[in-house]
Each structure stands twice: as structure tokens, then as C-alpha cells.
């Protein structure tokens, strides 16, 4: 079972270690290592921010990763990365679903947005299994999940099965939010032709931030 809890000051160093993992950095839009002093400042600012929400992914009673929401009115940009030893266990889709429930419920968000490298198949699969649809395909894939369009995405398909990510109708809506050091940058790109699909084969989960 996966749960989310608000991040606290004592989580700072562990989140930094997860973020600086080599495989995590390869999957990130910004693969550069982050100095701890830089991360420490960003983490403290994030905890104090009214428009950024950090949650620790908890599985088996222990921290297994981190998810983030950057809020912009009724929209929010999503970021996730998992502890290296917890990849490939189905935690990513479950954490993203829990985050969507929180965002669409307590936080009153209408649209969730994520940006993932086109070659990061594990992360694309995780978002697809969590009910996200492709709003724009390219070197960086923009994905969306709308409260109206995807209120209940249904049961998770088995880990490792091929997943079809549907195209999101209408223009992509992208939050305009400053990027902290290291996390994914949200890309504003026009919507693809209606009905365009991307086929993603599940593979060992990687962190996406």
C-alpha cells in the first residue's frame, strides 16, 4: 500500500540523495548534480511556499520517494522520483494516483501537467497507468490529467504490460511556474493532432522529476 505524507525539514537530505542518484539524473530534464547547499535552500523555501506541495511517498512504513505539485490557480505541474531501490515495484503509478486524488480533492486542482523525456519509457508508462494522457508528443512529452476527463481511471494494469497513452483533447494547458534547481521544466507546446497516440512498453521504473 502506498501513502503520501507532507514532507518535513528532516527529509531534506534523503530527498537530495534520491534526486542526485545517477539514474534519476539521466531521466531528468536537468541532469546536472545539485549541490546540497543549493538543495537545502530550495527545500526550505518549498516547505514554506503556499504554491508548492512536497509529499513523501511511503510504502511498507518507509520513505520510498517524493512527489511535488507546483500550483498555478486551478492547474498544477507534477514531479515524481523514487528511491533507487524502490523502482520497478509499481509504486510510481500508485503514488501518482494518490497525488491526483489529493490535488483534485483537498487542493481543488482541475488539471495536472507533467513533462517527461520521450525516451523515459518507464516514467511514461507510470503516468499512463495513473490516468494521464499525452497532450503533446516530442523530445519532451507533455502529459495531462483532468479532473473532468479522468475522474476514475480504473484499475492499474499489471506491471510490465504495454500501455497505450491516449491523446488529450483540446489545447495543452501548461502552468507557468518558475523551476527550482534541478526539477523538470514544464514545456508549453501546441497540442498534437486529435487522436494521436503513443505506445509505451513498460520497463523498469526510473525516477522522473
**Biggest sheet: strands, sense, closure?**
7 strands, mixed
Rounded to the nearest angstrom, the radius of gyration is: 16 Å
H/E topology pattern: EHHHEEEHEHEEEE
Q: Helix count, per DSSP?
A: 5
Find the CATH topology: Aminopeptidase
Number of domains: 1
Q: Give the CATH architecture.
A: 3-Layer(aba) Sandwich
C-alpha termini separation: 22 Å
The outline comes out as globular
Estimate the helix proportion, in percent: 10-25%
The overall pLDDT, averaged over residues, is: 80
Structural class computed from helices and strand pairing: alpha+beta
Main sheet strand line-up? 1-2-3-4-5-7-6
Beta content comes to 25-35%
The tally of strands reads: 9
What's the CATH H-level homologous superfamily? Answer: Gcn5-related N-acetyltransferase (GNAT)
Uncertain runs are: 157-166, 168-209
- In the CATH scheme, the class would be Alpha Beta
How is this structure best described in words?
The chain has helices at residues 12-20, 22-27, 36-48, 91-104, 121-129, and strands spanning 2-6, 52-59, 62-72, 75-82, 111-117, 133-136, 140-146, 163-165, 198-200. It is an alpha+beta fold. It has a single domain, classed as 3-Layer(aba) Sandwich (Aminopeptidase), CATH 3.40.630. It starts with a strand and ends in a 9-residue tail after the last strand. Mean pLDDT is 80; it is low at 157-166 and 168-209.
